[in-house]
Amino acid sequence: MKKIINRPMLQTLKHSLITTGILIAIAPHTWAVCSYTVTNNWGGGFTGEIKVTNDTAQTTNNWSVSWQEANASVTNAWNATLSGSNPYTANALGWNATLAPGASAIFGFQANGIAGAPKVNGNLCGTATSSTATTSSIKSSTPVISSSSSIKSSAASNSSKNSSSAASSTATENSWLFEESAVGFCSNSGVIDTKHSGYTGTGFIDTENAIGASIIWSITAATAKTYTAQIRFGNGGAAARRATVVVNDSQIKTLDFPTNSNWTQWQTVNVDIPLKAGTNSIKLVSETADGLANIDSIRVTGNGITPAACPTAPTDPTTADCNSITNQPILRVAADGSGQYKTVQAALNTLSNSNTTPTQIRIKPGVYREKLTITKPFVTFCGEQGKTTSTILTYNDGASTLKADGTAIGTSGSASITLKANDVSMENITIENSFGIGSQAVALLAQGQRLQFRNCRLLGNQDTLYTHSGTQYYRNCHIQGTVDFIFGAATAVFDNNTIHSVGGGTALTAPSTEQTVPYGLVFLGGKVTATSSVSKGSVALGRNWRPYGAAAYIRTELGQHIAAVGWVKMSENTLDTARFSEYLTTGAGANPSARAPQSKQLTATQAATYTISNIFGSWVPSYSK
After folding, report:
1. Which of 10, 284, 311, 468 is the most buried (most CB within 10 A)?
2. Angle at CA of residue 191, ends 188 and 192, nearest 5°
3. Region Disordered: start and end of each range (predicted)?
4. Given the residues 55, 206, 321, 463, the one annotated as active site
5. What is the pLDDT of residues 108-160, one digit of tens each?
6. Is 463 tagged catalytic?
7. d(CA 529, CA 205)
């Protein structure tokens, strides 16, 4: 693009002279510092923006700007009301009229014709004035993606016998414009539409009317730093539309897109985005039931910004999994005798409890009836890709099952798999407790640091998954049960899982989080579902097994079986100390106004802290990438 920056010398003038390319800022006192930017060029037209800055120690309560184009006609403007016909006048809107000292307002416009080099004058308005001599020049920079710029370096001047001053352009950072159907635009929850005029490029993005409607862009940054993104939008609806900006899977900020009751009067909003060096994903996610505002483009300013190829979505969610790892020792287990070992236990027996070598135990499809206690670290249990449902580790102990001495084995003793080691991964495997109903019966007891599970099924009834302690990450898993079937004191993240009730039960979860632990059970996205036998409104999201139990559901879809109150207490515990929260849950079970008063509906700022990096600190689960 070509960027023109002019910073005028401000002084008392005798009259307001408008000539070709002159920009005049109007206010009741000397205050204007103005810049004119050509933001996009295409055959037969261009878009531009004008930034007006209050350069005094006083607040100004209104502003307007007039300018004249030499070889173009302005068709519409945004973030200001447009009037006149060459000269054009842009008047402040209500929400951007007041400028504190040093504050700026930016409005944009679209024009047919050729962009020229303007002269920019700041002036005292309402006072006798005379013209000032002003020089401006245009310096080349990288063009926006959707067009090639035809502006050449040039200069213009205007002089007066009474006074003269000079303002020259300053070097500026490059920017890149990302429009629909161009490189760097990846996906949207809606359509590319053209029914409202004033858009640039081939159209604008009209998302579906729903919470969670989104647009994704892919951007390469040469340097890791914070860049400015400007989003051009239209909102002619009845109310502002709110969205969350997500960069590389981290929620950055919530933006409001104000309405001006006119779908053809486009506006812009700016947001600072932290980008890493290399490829970045930028996602805009609706927080309102009406979806996003109409999005015309996003322009990111900063040297070294270019579009990036969009990631290829796998046709199977298990595509890049443990089976692709070849630089580790591999122990092969097959129940049919075709592997090195017929049981998982036999493979485990070859490893030391002090193992430090990442090792894979690859398990062929089959039913493995084994009660396992895993104490070997740095092990990945890897089922075949796409064979999760046919690779089953199962046992059938319940808490009431008796030991040899005649005493019950208890809840912990009932676990089909007891995992007591750090740095263990499981993928493409079903873990089951087939005891049935009538007693607690744990499928997996997980106790350790940096445990991760992907594309797994955890099947049971009461107390299916015991997140005993440590740090745990579950992604794209199916976890089912009846009562309290996810419980424990671990810090555990459930990323895009299905939490499925197979029978009536008091609650889905029963966290026992320690008071000093900030996060407990955290559900990011995913769905909460139930079989048809589970009554509507009969199951709570959670109850606190210990006084300070913590659970949060972030953007999770809740089925109709979820109770309106949402959260209940367990035994003598009270909800007053529990830490139960939700953010933008959806579906028939989402009922914020009816929730237990001790629970929280998080603000966007609070919800933005529920990220992998905040929850786990230095540990980044490889399954989260």
Report:
1. 284
2. 100
3. 131-167
4. 463
5. 787 888 776 444 343 322 222 222 222 222 222 222 222 222 222 222 233 33
6. yes
7. 32
Angstrom distance (rounded) from CA 32 to CA 60: 10
- Four-point Cα dihedral 448, 449, 454, 456, nearest 10: 10
Report whether 513 contacts 474 (CB < 8 A).
no
Which H helix or E strand runs over 219? strand 214-221
Which of 325, 354, 331 has its CA nearest to residue 344? 331
Residue 42's pLDDT is 60
Mean pLDDT of 574-591: 95
> Tell me, what DSSP letter sits at residue 323?
G
Beta strand segments in 166-213, E: 175-179, 185-188, 190-193, 204-207
User: Phi, psi at residue 527, to the nearest 5°?
Assistant: -135, 145
Residue ranges of domains in the chain, CATH in brackets: 2-172 (2.60.40.290), 176-307 (2.60.120.260), 330-478 (2.160.20.10), 482-617 (2.160.20.10)
Give the Cα separation of 247 and 586 in Å (integer).
22
The pTM for the full model equals: 0.57
| Mean predicted confidence (pLDDT) in 551-575 | 95
List % helix, strand, coil for the chain (3-state, nearest 5): 5, 45, 50
Q: Are 130 and 163 in contact (CB under 8 A)?
A: yes
User: Which phi and psi angles does 616 have, rounded to 5°?
Assistant: -105, -5
| Pair 567, 594: CB distance under 8 Å | no
Residue with tokens 């939490």: 499
* Cα gap 216→35, rounded to integer Å: 30
Going by C-beta distance under 8 Å and a sequence separation of 6 or more, which residues neighbour residue 279? 218, 219, 220, 308
Name 251's bridge partners: 246
